[in-house]
Design goal:
heterotrimer, A alpha/beta (about 120), B alpha/beta (about 130), C alpha/beta (about 150), A: about 120 residues, alpha/beta, Hypothetical Protein Ychn, Chain: A, C: about 150 residues, 2 domains, about 40% helix
Chain lengths: ~120, ~130, ~150
């Protein structure tokens, strides 16, 4: 089964990156493939739960919904533990199903599974 | 004799504002010259690279370079939803119910596709690269 | 484990296989677990990083550098990223170039981008290769040698 890793380092809404990367991830899992979305640096904000109606507020589609859809389709969305701690987030503040890995472990996982890697 | 492989490239940043289109076109050109197959996917703001009649007097001539790449055998795909959003294609259906990809604004040879077209390109590639996104 | 040279890693993998044969019938020690053999062999993967920007944070620099692990791996610098191989550069991204060099990986910088930015060869860390056809070299490494390729 073809594997894809998408690394997202920018937060949602201020830039299109998170939306764009998650959009690809969703297309990839929708056809039955495995995906790992690795969120680090500001990308971890994409995994924050409670993003309230961004379409109404700022005319942008919900990134939280994308993350939920990807997890529902069997994709893995993983945040770097150091990056959430530095930003004062904890697991309870994240979308259900998002995984937290130590930086070393996430880097290693991406290296092992990264037959194809896209960075955004 | 080099073994021919397929390289799929995603460009995700708009041209002129940065050097990614330059790096991408050079890497794609060298890959073709070395006998590999190249597929390019223009995504997000990068779809602006497909605009016809660009005349950057002083900047990297991405439109010209894309035309050359197409002439040399690269497949250049553009994200249709991103292109509709930015006004390159209408997003309407033709009289016989097909997607209307006609446009006076787009370089010849650029093919529109959904994200699933990109997904297929990613799956068949031997190697994948992403340029841009900042 | 990741600091091992590829040669040492092959020797370790061989010892592990030999130990399996000797200890047939006995309880397997942690050194003979099949997953250890697999991860040892998988460690031999060659990796290639194409860097085209100056990373924004220390964390990003660390992460980018982590893909370059040993002799046989390579780092290609285009665009603004060529600045990180200047000896006097003290930003966090300097660890990417110096780290790669210390692991005996190949580090190449774009001649064209250096000249355009006024960076002289004498300013660079020792061991950096200045390459004219850097895209061509990168394609060769990516297609013929590397199992892991990532572009930033």
């Amino acid at each position: 089964m073809p594997k894809l890793v998408i690394e997202i380092i920018h937060g949602p809404y201020g830039r299109e990156n998170a939306y764009a990367g998650l959009f690809i991830a969703m297309g990839w899992v929708a056809v039955g493939n495995e995906v790992i979305v690795a969120l680090h640096s500001d990308g971890v904000y994409a995994a924050r739960r409670g993003q309230k109606d961004p379409m109404k507020e700022i005319s942008l589609p919900s990134v939280e919904k994308q993350v939920m859809d990807i997890i529902e389709e069997g994709g893995r969305v993983i945040v770097d533990r150091t990056c959430i701690e530095v930003r004062g987030l904890d697991k309870e503040m994240l979308i259900k199903g998002v995984e937290v890995l130590d930086g070393d472990d996430l880097v290693e996982l991406v290296y092992q599974e990264g037959e194809r890697v896209l960075t955004l | 004799m080099v073994e021919k492989k397929t390289l799929t490239i995603m460009l995700a940043s708009a041209p002129f504002g940065n050097q990614y289109a330059d790096h991408m076109c050079r890497v794609a050109t060298r890959a073709l010259e070395k006998g590999h197959a190249v597929e390019i996917f223009l995504y997000g703001d990068a779809v602006h690279a497909q605009m016809n009649n660009q005349s950057p007097k002083l900047f990297f001539p991405v439109g010209e370079k894309l035309k050359e790449l197409i002439a040399k055998g690269a497949k250049v795909y553009s994200c249709e939803i991103c292109s509709v959003a930015r006004g390159y294609i209408s997003g309407q259906l033709t009289a016989d119910g097909k997607k209307d990809y006609s446009s006076t604004k787009v370089l010849d040879g650029v093919q529109f596709t959904t994200i699933f077209g990109f997904v297929e390109s990613l799956a068949r590639a031997d190697k994948v690269l992403s340029f841009g996104g900042g | 484990m990741h600091q091992c040279s590829p040669e040492r890693r092959i020797r370790i993998a061989y010892q592990v296989v030999m130990q399996l044969e000797f200890e047939e019938g006995k309880t397997q020690s942690v050194y003979t677990k099949p997953s250890t053999i697999i991860s040892t062999l998988v460690d031999l993967m060659k990796s290639c990083v194409l860097l085209m920007k100056l990373p924004g944070t220390e964390g990003e620099s660390w992460r980018i550098g982590e893909a370059v692990r040993a002799k046989g791996d390579s780092l290609f610098l285009l665009g603004d990223a060529v600045a990180i191989c200047r000896r006097e550069y003290r930003g966090h991204a300097s660890s990417i170039a110096s780290g790669a060099l210390s692991k005996d990986a190949k580090v190449c910088a774009s001649a064209r981008d250096l000249r355009a930015r006024g960076i002289e060869a004498s300013e660079l860390l020792e061991g950096i290769k200045i390459v004219e056809d850097i895209e061509g070299d990168f394609i060769d490494v990516m297609m013929d040698q590397a199992e892991r390729v990532v572009a930033w």
